[in-house]
Every structure is written in C-alpha cells, then in structure tokens.
Fold:
Amino acid sequence: MSTVKFYRPEHQVPLEMHKVRIVQKLYLRDVDERLRLINEAGNNTFLLQNKDIYMDMLTDSGVNAMSDNQQAAMFQADDSYAGSETCNRLRRAIQDVLGLNDFLPAHQGRACENILAEAFCKKGDVVPMNFHFTTTKAHITRLGAKVVELVAAKGLQADSIDPFKGDFDIPRLKQFIAENKGRISFLRIETGTNLIGGQPISMANMLEVAKICRENGIISVMDASLLQDNLYFIKTREEAYKNKDTKEIMHELCAAMDITYFSARKLGFARGGCICSNNQDLLLRMKEFVPLYEGFLTYGGMEVRSMEAIAVGLYETLDMEYISQGPLFIEHLVRELDEYGVPVVKPAGGLGAHLNASAFFPDMPHSQYPAGALAVAMYIAGGIRGMERGTISEQREPDGTERYAELELLRLAVPRRVFTLSQIEYVADRVKWVWDNRQLIKGLRFVEEPKVLRFFFGRLAPVDDWQEKLVAKFKADFGDSL
Ligand SMILES: *Cc1c(COP(=O)(O)O)cnc(C)c1O
Structure:
C-alpha cells in the first residue's frame, strides 16, 4: 500500500502497490444453494467446501499470496538431506532480516511450540504470556505446566480504542515473577495477539518485558507469527519509531529476546516454522527434538521449496508497501462497518475484522451460540466464510456444563495480498445487510457434539425456521439471484 493521495479526497482508499498475476476462480452459489450447503455442513463453517465459498475469511494461515520472487526462488530448492544450500539461504535470510545467527526448522508454528515446551516446561511450571494461542496452550498444558495470561485490562475491553491492546500489564508481571520464582519455564510474548482481535503490542512494552526477564534470569520467547502486522502498527502508531526503518525495528526487537519463533504460514507468506536465536546453549537444549519430531536439521519437516519461499518472504515482511496491505484493508472495512453502526472490535488490528456477535443479538442466550449463528448468517447472506470465536470454540466443563466465552466474536480474516478492495466492499455491504436484518436471526443447537475440538467437527441446526425467513428477506431485497 502506498501513501498516494487521491485528488478526490472523498474517494481516498488504500492503493495496492502490487498487481495480481495468478488468479483462482471463485464461485458464488445462489442464496437457496447457500442455505442448503450450510445445513449440509452442519451449520459449521469449518465443514463447508472451498468450491462453495466466495470470500474465504476463515483464517490467515497458509493462505497468503506469494510474490513472483518467492515463486521464482522455489525453483532453486536444494533437496540434499545434509548440507542443503536451501537451508543455508534461509539461515542467511534470518541473519539478515531478524539479525539472529542461527535457527532450528520445524514444519509449522505449533511444531516450534511443541519443541519449546518439550525443552523447557515441566510439571508444576508456569508460563506467563500476554495472551494464549490455542496450540501454544495445548503443548504447555500437555506437559503439566500452566499458562498464565497477563494482558493489560484494555486488551479484553471490546470498547477500548487503545492503540496497543496486546500490551502486558507490567505491575502484574512484576508481582507474578516475585510470587513464582524458580517455576517459570519461560515468558512468551505474542506479537500481534491472535485471539483478542489481532491487537498489537508496543515496542516500549516488549522491550520493558524483555528487560524484566533478563533482570530475573527468565528466558524470553517471542512468538513472531503475526509480527509483520505488528511491525506496521509500531511504525504507524508509536511515535519513537516513526522514522526508524522496519529492519532497524526488527533487529532491535529480536536482539532483546532470547528466542524468536514464528509460523511461516503467516510471517513470510509461505508455510513452515523456525525457532531463531543468538544463544547456542538455548538452541542446543531444543536441537535434539528436531530430528525426533520434525526431520533432519536441514529441513525440520518443511518442504525445501517452502523454505526458499520463506527466505524471500522474510525480506518482504520488511517492505511497508506489502505489510500495510492487510492492516489498511482491515481498517477500511472496520471504518465502514463502524459508520453503519455495526458492532466491530476497534481499533482495527491485524489478521482480520472481528464482529461482536453479543451486540448483534443482545437477547440471544449464550447457549444458542450467537457467534456461530452470525457465521451462518454471513454465509447465507453472501457466501462469506468467517470463523466463530465464541462459545462453540470453548470446551464444556468436565461436568458437561457450558463454558461461555468472554467475547462472542465472528472473525473475518483478511489473508495477506489476496483480496481486492471491491471484494472487501462486498463484505461490508453484506455485513450491513445482516446487521439491518439481525432481528430475523435466531440461534443454533448442537445435533452432533464431539467431546474435543467440537468447533472443527461439530454439527448444529437452527433452533427454528429463521434461516428460511432470512432467505425470503434476501430475495425480497435482492431478487431471486445471488
Ligand atoms: C497461527 C499461530 C500459531 C501456530 O502456527 P501454525 O503454523 O498454524 O501451527 C502460533 N502462534 C500464533 C500467534 C499464531 O497466529
């Protein structure tokens, strides 16, 4: 994206500084088909087929567009098991872009987390972090250690417009460290909090947290999976960094941490994972798990062509014209929705826009899954697939009672460099239509509920015939068509 000013200020929009050279055909099923298809999919957007989706806004993982340079680099992949030149090229890119000497490869972000947990967590340990991510928490708790979230209060307030809602609560962190001496496996900083709306964390906060870790002999670990969006927010929202270039910021940040890991399904516009550090002792403690769980140290379960794509993609994460695209599209979408009065999490973060389903349906009981109902309504209204981030994504208590989510959100992810602005406009249009017709929408109930990961595989049904009424209203407004 550029800072190009439009002559007609009322038409100012984010302007792409890239063009699309490979395209994928999309299909928009008509509204009757959408009703049938979502019910065949058990009213669960995870069970829809891609051929039936117009806007796939489920996730930003592994679905970001590659550049011509990334694709070109993939041709030179060196498959040799030992001494692979591809591995050397990726190491050099990590040295140059992150300023870190060495790395361990893993097949994706959660595989890095598995290795970190195996190397450092034991039963009875605690792992403080600003906010958990699903896979991170699963690996840590699997080993009997406990995740403790220390995000500042603003992070959980849907109506707070603080620019850095991912910040740690520093006084709480200090108190926590004093109370848990000797039990802390490591501290994890998630740069760009996934589960609380892609909200960034400030450079000042991260550097202070890293300093506190050093003073207390605690290993600091940065999860940099969403760092490219966070870098953009540091540069545009944090005064002290306005005039620093992205590489300087990246180096300063990585140098402050003991370990930096990332999912290359997000950072680097590719697929894979890396654990990077200047500290050979720490790398040595993790090294043995790479051949055990992932593969040899030259590839760690990654496809070599993907490694070439990461090496080039890392450089692209320093390019403001690329990394601003996601945040600016999301900001554009959030601003339009906000102007219509649609309840959406603000300020706009990275990753995607998050609709506040509780505010769409203030009278719908939690037990009828407001965020799930909104996800279904968006598919019926526009072939748009979002991800439920509410009670369906939680797991029942051991006694079978529901654990209601703190926030009932529908996430509309914006994969990087993938959509055009007219497609984003279409999403805003259909969200507004759903908002204007929200009184027609009722809840869902489970008809098939797996004990674990029910949000992936569970099947639901509408509580009454609200979906037919919604379709009838759609036809009245748009005609019989799409
Ligand atoms: C996606 C993600 C992960 C996990 O990465 P995968 O490659 O999907 O395993 C870890 N941390 C954060 C912050 C993420 O967004």
